[in-house]
Amino acid sequence: MKKVLIGKIVNTHGIKGEIRILSHFPFKEKVFQVGNKLLVDDQEYTIMSYRVHKGFDMVTFDGYSNINDVLIFMKKDVFVLEEDLHLDENEVLDEDLIHYTVLTKEGKRGIIKEIFYASEDNKILRVELDHEVLVPMNSPMILEINKKDKVVLIELIEGM
Question: What are the strands of the beta sheet with 122-128, ordered from one edge?
Answer without folding.
Answer: 132-136, 122-128, 109-119, 101-104, 151-154, 142-146
